[in-house]
Design goal:
Structural class: mainly alpha
Bound molecules: iron/sulfur cluster
Shape: elongated
Strand order of the largest sheet: 2-4-3
Helix content: 40-55%
Strand content: 5-15%
Number of strands: 7
Length: 190
């Protein structure tokens, strides 16, 4: 007669439930925890979740968008918002005062809640010089985050970024390098 181990069956059902309803990130969290705690039980669970995820999320590998520097996003209409730290940082990079930077390169946002980069008459960002950003090493976080942490619905057909499917660790490494954000802060953003 077939004997059913209630504890093991319940654990497997719970595992399947968590895998299905809590998403692919469960695998990464369990795996990291198993390495930190050196727990073989957690490692086995991570592996089981990983296998289940292959069925549940067969096409959901994270996709990194590799910028091709076509500069289309520097020509789109829209605001590049600046934080106070970014204003100070870019002014320092340009070796001018914050007051001069504010007067020559920024405008008050339409909601009057801060500054954005000024646009040229043709709508380009004021710092776009041919095919280059004149403040590349100090460009605002909003620019760094595009197109991996935010996108525009109308970007398709304009942004030339190449999609690359990666495993989660490499994806996080690449997004961290592209945005300048520490890897540990990315999980809440993607
Ligand atoms: S600051 Fe640089 S990257 Fe950002 S929109 Fe302007 S030219 Fe483009
Ligand atoms: S539009 Fe896309 S590919 Fe072109 S510069 Fe911006 S992010 Fe890069």
């Amino acid at each position: 007669m077939l004997k059913i181990n209630v504890a093991k069956t319940s654990a497997l059902v719970l595992l399947a439930f968590r895998s299905v309803f809590m998403g692919p990130r469960v695998f990464q969290d369990l795996y990291s925890l198993s390495r930190k705690t050196r727990s073989r039980a957690l490692w086995l669970r991570a592996m089981a979740v990983g296998v289940l995820n292959q069925f549940r999320y067969p096409r959901r590998m994270p996709t990194f968008h590799q910028c091709q520097r076509c500069t289309a996003c520097c020509r789109w209409p829209g605001m590049v918002k600046l934080t106070a730290d970014e204003v100070a940082s870019i002014a320092s990079f340009l070796e001018i005062t914050v007051e001069r930077f504010t007067a020559e390169f920024t405008d008050l946002r339409s909601d009057r809640k801060g500054l954005n980069l000024r646009e040229k008459q043709n709508g380009e960002c004021i710092f776009l010089e041919g095919g280059d950003c004149a403040i590349q090493s100090h460009k605002p976080q909003q620019c760094r985050d595009f197109p991996n942490l935010w996108r525009r619905p109308d970007m398709a057909g304009h942004c030339q970024a190449t999609p690359v499917e990666l495993d989660l660790e490499e994806y996080l490494d690449r997004v961290s390098a592209a945005t300048g954000r520490p890897k540990s802060t990315l999980k809440g953003l993607i």
